[in-house]
Amino acid sequence: MAGKIPRAFIEDLVARIDLVDLIDARIPLKRSGANYSARCPFHSEKTPSFSVSREKQFYHCFGCGAHGNAINFLMEYDRLSFVEAVEWLADSAGLSVPVESEGRGVRQEEQGPALQGLYEVQEKAARFYAAQLRAHPGGERAVAYLKERGLEGETARRFLVGYAPPGWRSLPENLGSPEQLLAAGLAIRNEQGGIYDRFRDRIMFPIRDRRGRVIAFGGRVLGEGTPKYLNSPETAVFVKHRELYGLHELLAALRKPERILVAEGYMDVISLAQAGVINAVATLGTATSAEHVKTLFRFCREVIFCFDGDRAGHSAAWKALDASLPAMREGRSVRFLMLPDGQDPDSLVQAEGKAEFERRMDAAAPLSDYFFAQLAERHELGAMEGRAALIGEAKPLLEKLPESVYRDMMYERLGDLAGRSQVPIGSKSTKLERKPGLGRTERTRPSALRVLVALLLQRPSLVSQIDDPARTSLVRLEKGGTLISKLLALINEKPDITAGGIVERFRGDAEENQVKALLVWDAMIPPEGVEAEFGDALRKVLKQEQKDRLDALLSKVEQTKLSAEELEEMKALLADR
Q1: In 3D, which of 499, 466, 497, 569 has the Cα closest to residue 12?
Q2: Could you tell me which of 518, 435, 449, 515 has the C-alpha nearest to residue 477?
Q3: Which CATH class, in words, describes the domain spanning 107-238?
């Protein structure tokens, strides 16, 4: 979807949805006190530890730590992207998703039908091309080619393989309006203003999104024409660096794949699936992107990139490695399968069979091994200059890794390779430092400020206990932070907001993880005692803020003259001690 979905719409949408009903439709929930519980759908367990709060509109698993609101649940359970989750919720609420374009808004009533029209015209085109493969005289050449490549009829039907006839205007008149055909990338406008078919005399591979909707096409030329492969241009429903060919078909066959292989071509994916290797996808004529990697790790924990073993293949593999680094966390694995020269997955699986190809997948090189092997080939490690160049090239790449034990181990291995016990490139220790304020661990007694903010997040109605002077003091106490300021402003703007709505407002913000941590923190306070505990925490926090403010004024008066306002403030604070 082009443009940006307005935040206000997303927040209102989350407020309309009952999270308990949403989850109960997928996982039977049982009443457990004020909340609802079930066995967690995100990890194996015998005793229910998955809790859903209707009041907070928030779920949390005490076993694996999964938590979030309605959008988070759909993204994790139904494996939808953020936009797809919003679209699903909007559809269930009978709403169209508005989109803000740069510089101006797009009205809700215009945007929904326009996008729906694009999906419909693409679906009609896919059915037309599939029919032409069997009915058009030119389709015989296409069928002969596909049979020569070893493709069976059932496999072709599964992937909706079709044929675009020759000629400039083969698409039927009732497929869609000229404007729709242009917007869908199925037609091109010439200099005279007329339009003609983009795809002509080509074998057609429909590209489907994760929901199974046709969003674009890839066309393979018959004969010696150029380009050999022609893809749809990017449209309002098709962005190349986000989509993966074959992902819909893979997820239809495997709900929870252990690993996914990323190949380069349509026929690679189709031939692998026909041979029984059904966990393969392909990029769409573009290099592997960070969005691709992020999408893949939503569905599996191991990604195997498969490329030809020539120079071009290694270049593509290095780009995939670069895109993967920011996503490398504990529990995730990236491997590289470099094929023999002149081979691709299509030809290799037909020659060797499923078992041998999967054996190759098992033996694929881990990211760490491939990373350092490639660096070692590029630099003369016998010379100091070569080792320095090695560190210089590795540094900006390793800095993309999230702080973790894995990152530290990569630094250590670089040090070993460069012949140094330590590599001075800024590796940060993974030991968790104790920080003041809201970030204290559960082993220490929670501060009054932590209790106050956690309870306010979990029960926003408690804001009624905070008057204007107290609000000013809390913001001042934050000393440059923004969480309290944002939270108070949000609740003031939307007094009826739930915890799930708060999570949505902080999505993508610097405070997002802090908000989530405080939302799932258990203060061990019975429901009837929450208001009193909040009031007590507020008094303690304000008392501490007054002390800090008085200390600051007393320190200042020793160095310079106070203003009249500061002097009056200091007298009031001294009188209140």
Answers
A1: 497
A2: 449
A3: alpha beta
Average pLDDT per 10 consecutive residues for the chain, totaling 577 residues: 76 87 90 90 89 90 89 88 87 78 48 72 95 90 93 94 92 87 93 91 93 92 86 91 92 88 95 96 91 89 94 94 92 94 92 96 96 92 88 92 89 85 48 39 59 88 87 74 83 86 87 84 76 87 78 74 75 68
Q: Domain 242-354: which topology? A: Dna Topoisomerase Vi A Subunit; Chain: A, domain 2 (3.40.1360)
| Reduced 3-state DSSP string for 223-292 | CCCCCCEEECCCECCECHHHCCECHHHHHHHCCCCCEEEEECCHHHHHHHHHCCCCCEEECCCCCCCHHH
Q: Which fold has domain 7-103?
A: DNA Primase; Chain A (3.90.580)
Structure-token pair, residue 131: 């029919």
Report d(CA 139, CA 128) in Å as an integer.
12
Quick check: 530 and 517 in contact, CB under 8 A?
Answer: no
pLDDT tens digits for range 68-107: 999 999 988 888 888 889 988 888 887 888 876 555 454 4
Express each pLDDT in 171-190 by its tens digit. 988 788 899 999 999 999 98
Rounded to the nearest 10 degrees, the angle between the axes of helix 367-378 and helix 405-418 is: 30
Nearest-10 Cα torsion for 544, 548, 550, 556: 180
Amino acid at 322: D
Which pair of structure tokens corresponds to residue 244?
């993966």
Q: Does domain 446-575 have CATH number 1.10.860.10?
A: yes
